[in-house]
Amino acid sequence: MSPVFYVLAVFTVAGGLAAVLLKNTVHCALALTVAFAGLALLFLNLDAQFVGFAQILIYIGAVAILVVFAILLTRGTETPPTGVFSHSWFVGLVIAAGVFSVLGWAVLQSARNLPQEPAVPSVTVHDIGVALLGRYVLPLEIVALLLTSATIGAVIVAMHEKGRAQ
Amino acid sequence: MASPLTGYLVLAALLFAIGLAGALTRRNAILVLIGIELMLNAANLNLVAFWRFSPHPEALTGMMFAIFSIAVAAAEAAVGLGLVISIYRHAQTTDLDQMNRMKG
What we know:
The complex is a heterodimer.
Chain A: H1 3-21, H2 25-45, H3 49-73, H4 89-109, H5 125-133, H6 137-158
Chain B: H1 4-25, H2 29-52, H3 61-91
Helix pairs in contact in B: 1-2, 2-3
């Protein structure tokens, strides 16, 4: 494993931990952006250029901005006096630790059978485009429909109700 | 010598656990959504890592799965945050511990 992987892994995990642990919600959203950027770099490190740049465009460009908008629209920047963690936080932590230990155990158990690093795949964006409009054209259309309906649905759900607007 | 894939899988498991812990322990609904996004990203990392180490990467299967998963996650984020804003307008709070009624 290359040192680049370790640097990116530490970067991503630090961003994820900060996104979950920080008190100020806006800081959490910024830390989430760091984690997304680390993941995009990991995708690039895995020779998946298209997914890496899609990650930057969609997550850093759209999802992180949406999260910041939602935080500002809901006055989420005020830290509640009762604390930021739920009163059942210990149970959640135990469940997460249990899930991690089971997943890590399963990965390490099968570590011997995992393949060594193969040659760099020669997959270009052209190949991805051909596959998207050939073999995967039906899922692509369904995703287009899903995105359209999700956008309309989100606008309708978040829209001011007439008569109740102040 | 351990395969580099092990590192990616352990990292994805760690990110998933961090996201799960965030989704289960935070009070703010937006932070719960952030935890869910982290979990989705950990799954995407698994998909791309398995694609990279597969015997036939030119089949593009894992990569396509990751691309569609990113698109569905973007739709999920839009609807989820719209719901949070709508609930905030109704209940004036995003604290999940106070949202314990279904009749509003």
